[in-house]
């Protein structure tokens, strides 16, 4: 296979998502192509580093902040879940 084909698979290689046979072929092809070898090594290290970081916390506040940014840009988003009660405004009833 051509090295152009392997370049298209570098992201799957970095994530460890390729079958062992194809990964071995890519390792062999990287010996003759220093650019491919560099991309494979650096991207795999980057993916491994990102996976080692703790997952970000996604809170209700984060959700609301993202929705407000989308609304401000004119995007009409209709979430499936209702708004959490802490973000609802309660009006006093006078009567």
Concise description?
The protein is built from five helices and no strands. The protein is mostly helical.
Describe this structure in words.
The structure is a single chain. By secondary structure, the protein is an all-alpha fold. The protein has one domain (1-77). The chain is built from five helices and no strands. It has helices at residues 3-8, 10-14, 20-30, 34-52, 60-72. The N and C termini lie far apart (80 Å).
Tell me the layout of helices and strands.
Layout: H1 3-8, H2 10-14, H3 20-30, H4 34-52, H5 60-72
The average pLDDT score comes to 87
Helix run count? 5
Termini separation comes to 80 Å
* Element order: H for helix, E for strand: HHHHH
Runs in which pLDDT lies below 50 for 5 or more consecutive residues are none
Q: Give me the oligomer status.
A: single chain
The biggest sheet amounts to:
none
Percent range for helical residues?
A: 55-70%
Question: Structurally, how many domains make up the residues?
Answer: 1
> What integer value in Å does the Rg equal?
24 Å
Strand content: under 5%
Molecular shape? elongated
The total strand number stands at 0
Structural class: mainly alpha
């Amino acid at each position: 296979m051509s090295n152009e084909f392997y370049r298209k698979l570098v992201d799957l290689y970095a994530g460890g998502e390729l079958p062992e046979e194809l990964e071995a072929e890519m390792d062999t092809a990287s010996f003759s192509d220093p650019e491919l070898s560099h991309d494979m090594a650096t991207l795999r290290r980057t993916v491994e580093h990102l996976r080692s970081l703790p997952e970000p916390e996604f809170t209700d506040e984060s959700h609301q902040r993202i929705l407000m940014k989308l609304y401000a840009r004119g995007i009409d988003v209709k979430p499936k879940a209702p708004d959490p009660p802490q973000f609802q405004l309660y009006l006093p009833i006078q009567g």
